[in-house]
Design brief:
With about 325 residues, the chain is of the alpha/beta class. It has helices at about 1-5, 10-20, 45-60, 75-80, 115, 140-150, 165-175, 190-200, 210-215, 265-280, 280-290, 300-320, and strands at about 35, 65-70, 90-95, 115-125, 130-135, 155-160, 180-185, 205, 220-225, 250-260, 290-295. The relative contact order is 0.18.
Length: about 325
């Protein structure tokens, strides 16, 4: 298998596994060790889950597998974690939308992220990009803003779904720049890109990594991205901060979570395994391929980041006028 081969050289993790296996996880033979993912196979969350399932398997000797629970924009996987025992055997690989954005977008939440879940490890920041189709007569942000203002009505921007951070990032972008745009929700990043490439929508607000193949093929143009600096993959594309919009300089993130009540020593051990893996050349290379920026955070630091992110999105979402079922 690809991922098994990729990690076979990570001797440090094997040594960790030798010392930790069976030391802190329930040893019942019937225990199922799994990482839940709320999106289809092939996406970044799925691939990250497989990487860290392999990492945890090597380090602990426990048979971690990836279990896909698609539906409701990733919420079904989070709800499945809510029903799991708090023993460290069931984890969730998810993005910020299902944690820090979700509580502000539903009338009655099925789960409360800050009390029902415990952060284990931050597994990468992803840059958010504004992209336009090849037919749009704009190769930079200012030209695009002027183009939208000259149209008879607002121009649509596609995202991976209503109520996601990408949806509301587009709201912030329009407010900050004066671009006349309205939201066009899709059921995932893939469908949004298909329509962007086909010219059915003029623009999209999506993770930068998902756009790169289409940029390289000349079918999509990226006009700005949220990193603090330029991406090594697209060095000619300025960050929004560089373009004069520092308020737009924040990114999305992925992370690993457990059920609230999971013993602190298990959380700390898992965090250590993931952080050590993120330091290896193999994992660093994979993160670069995903256009992810690594931050080594303790569970406590990750929790503080999640809290701050949740507080930031609240007023943005309320100010947008969004309500459950409005899109």
């Amino acid at each position: 298998m690809y991922f098994s081969k990729m990690f076979s050289s990570v001797a440090a993790l094997a040594l960790v596994g030798a010392s930790l296996a069976g030391a802190f996880i329930p040893a019942a033979a019937q225990t199922q060790y799994r990482i839940l993912v709320g999106y289809p196979p092939g996406g970044v969350q799925d691939q990250e889950a497989r990487i860290f399932a392999n990492t945890l398997r090597e380090a602990t000797g426990r048979p971690f597998v990836v279990e896909t629970r698609t539906g409701a924009a990733g919420q079904l996987a989070a709800e499945a974690l809510l029903l799991a025992p708090a023993d460290g055997a069931t984890l969730l690989m998810t993005a910020d939308s299902n944690i820090s954005v979700y509580p502000h977008t539903v009338r009655k939440a099925a789960y409360t992220p800050l009390t029902d879940f415990v952060p284990i490890a931050h597994t990468g920041d992803y840059r958010i990009a504004l992209a336009v189709g090849a037919a749009v007569p704009a190769s930079d942000l200012r030209t695009f803003i002027n183009w939208t203002q000259a149209q008879p009505g607002p121009s649509g921007y596609g995202t991976a779904g209503a109520g996601t951070n990408l949806h509301f990032y587009g709201v912030l972008l329009a407010q900050a720049t004066g671009a006349r745009m309205y939201h066009v929700p899709y059921r995932g990043t893939g469908p949004a890109i298909v329509d962007l490439v086909a010219g059915h929508i003029p623009a999209a607000v999506l993770p930068l990594g998902s756009l790169l193949p289409h940029v390289n093929a000349g079918k999509v143009k990226v006009l700005g991205q949220t990193g603090d600096n330029r991406s090594t993959s697209l060095p000619d594309v300025a960050s929004f901060k560089e373009l004069g919009y520092p308020a737009l300089s924040f990114s999305g993130w992925y992370g690993l979570f457990a059920r609230a009540g999971t013993p602190a020593d298990i959380v700390d051990q898992y965090n250590g395994i993931v952080v050590r893996a993120l330091r290896t050349p193999e994992i660093k290379k994979r993160m670069r391929e995903f256009e992810l920026d690594i931050r080594e955070l303790s569970p406590q630091q990750f929790l503080a980041m999640v809290k701050a992110d949740t507080e930031r999105w609240g007023p943005v979402i309320r100010g947008s006028g969004f309500t459950a079922g409005s899109e």
